[in-house]
Amino acid sequence: MKLPLSKYVWFDGKYIPVEKAKVPITTHAIHYGTSIFEGIRAYWNEKNLFIFRLEEHVERFRRSGQFYNISLNFSDEEITNAIIGICKKNKIKKSCYIRPFYFVGDYGINLHVTKDAPTSVAIFSFPFGDLFNKNGISAGIVSWRKFSDASTPTQAKMGGNYLNSIIATQEAKRNGVDEAILLDHVGNVSEAPGENIFIVKNGQLLTPLLTSSALDGITRDAIIKVAKDLDIEVLERNITRSELLAAEEVFLTGTAAEITPVTSIDSQIIGNKKPGDITKKMMQEYTDIVMNQHDSFAHWLTAVY
Ligand code: PMP
User: Fold this and answer.
1) Which of 15, 53, 171, 288 could form a disulfide with 293 if both were Cys (CB 3.0 to 4.6 A apart)?
2) With a threshold of 0.85, does the pTM exceed it?
3) Is residue 13 pLDDT above 90, yes or no?
4) Residues with CB under 6 A from ligand 1
């Protein structure tokens, strides 16, 4: 998949044309996955471009690297300004995806990564619409388990961790479904390869605990807060495989996936094969919020222009 990248990228403090942003083949991150990344969306509502939950993304960006003492050599303010700046520099007036990342650079074959290891930071962006079919997708529980905190920190959003997502996605696609669902190390529901998961049971919203190795998703957090605002009860708790299959509704949440209904799992129909009422309500609220049409959540938006 070749991305329609915007002309300029931000690379270690400078805006440069994308074709000039190069790294040596000895870059540590290529060999060992020592990279940290964020996925951020910005939404164009015909008046302005709004970056969704920028502060939370920048916070997680820094925190992810701290698990491994990988240094982010720019302040939160500099990263924030660079993310806003990349939109301005490229004169973006379309909804887009923004990918900031930092990585261990030329550090030989050394596995002893310290805070003094050289790192670089880059940001690119591209226009982006729906990742998934918003009328509902099929999913399958894969045989690979979500890695647990017993082996690597689950809350570090790092390159290496995504091999688990990649192998899960390969299995799902091989089985002919749109998306994988992973169970945690003890067999409870964890999450999808790049999304958190919610189910509706007896009219209540349930989502796995972070102790089920789910990422502390920013969209997950948004849905929890929006549901509370709507007086819909939300519970974070262990969810069993059979509860998932018997759910009234299932949806995935993530920056790229936004709110995506799941209408079948392992060939079993969820609900009546259409997005359910709570799912539809959440999708509508989310759209209103990101398009700056929901005053009580306007503080989640950063206007670019
Ligand atoms: N889980 C994983 C493994 C992810 O990669 C993502 C995407 N960042 C999510 C959940 C959803 O997180 P967010 O809502 O912050 O995008």
Assistant:
1) 288
2) yes
3) yes
4) 39, 165, 191, 194-196, 215, 217-220, 253-255
